Amino acid sequence: MSFPTDRPAVWFVTGTSRGLGLELVRQVLARGDRVAATTRSSERLLAALGDGIDPSRLLPLTVDLRDEAAVGRAVQETTERWGGLDVVVNNAGYGFLAAVEETGDREVRDMLDVQVVGVWNVLRAALPVLREQRGGHIVNVSSILGLTAVPGWALYCAGKFALEGLSEALAAEAADFGVGVTVVEPGYFRTDFLTEDSLALPAETTAHYPAIRAMVRDHLKLQGGQLGDPVKGAAAIVGRVLAGEGPLRLLLGSDAHSYASAKVEALRANVEAAAGTAPATDFPAA
Questions:
Q1: pTM, full prediction
Q2: Catalytic one among 142, 143, 167, 209?
């Protein structure tokens, strides 16, 4: 992808009223670019951004990402207002901490609707625009827990693992049209992701998972002490988009790198251990 240098770029960013998404909107606007910012509450977004925002460069959109038609209208409104679309950032999401056994049907569907179906809705609306203009950049904000899994985070990991698979396939499909794809894998960032207002918990728990109850308490205490700086994280995302190329995955944070390294080593050991047994299920050579 070639990032436009002769005009302000047009960004479409989801999940913008707090955290990494909010900081990304701030930095995009500070660059002089234009941003359509989707959120469940435009009022909260505008309050968080404060005064001094040029309204001609910001399009706040209250959108339910689970609603395909609403997402389509939001992308159409963006392109009609500014004449095109350059960068799509799928950032919306939330955490959920519970044992698999404690995770209810509604909780599963709600999480996957946001983290998988919502992303798919945005992509279906945006890709025809990017394909026809033969250029653009898609950024899917995953998590290091989209690459490795830990107890208590099964539902969140399920959504992010799905996003990783979607992104890998998408990168190969979109390359022929000059559209770049980046998967962002943050570690723990000092946002409100781990606050009681943001971290979803199960409707019912059992006494059989005391370690997960302790993990919940520890995560709530971690709030305010996370390693990741959201200002630096947003700047890294902007930098990757401006560069226009790089590895598919963008790891953010030393903790993310440590988790990823451990997963690679465990996977390598697993693959090597199966080297002698895997061919046993093949048909005999002719």
A1: 0.93
A2: 142
Q: What is the pLDDT of residues 68-78, one digit of tens each?
A: 999 999 999 99
pLDDT value of residue 219: 78
Annotate the chain with three-state secondary structure: CCCCCCCCCEEEECCCCCHHHHHHHHHHHHCCCEEEEEECCHHHHHHHHCCCCCHHHEEEEECCCCCHHHHHHHHHHHHHHHCCCCEEEECCCCCECECHHHCCHHHHHHHHHHHHHHHHHHHHHHHHHHHHHCCEEEEEECCHHHCCCCCCEHHHHHHHHHHHHHHHHHHHHHHHHCEEEEEEEECCECCCCCCCCCCECCCCCCCCCHHHHHHHHHHHHHCCCCCECHHHHHHHHHHHHHHCCCCCEEEECHHHHHHHHHHHHHHHHHHHHCCCCHHHHCCCCC
One of 17, 143, 156, 167 is an active-site residue; which one?
Answer: 156
Active-site residue, 156 included: yes
Active site residue 160: yes
Positions of the chain with pLDDT lower than 50, given as ranges: none
Q: What is the pLDDT of residue 191?
A: 67
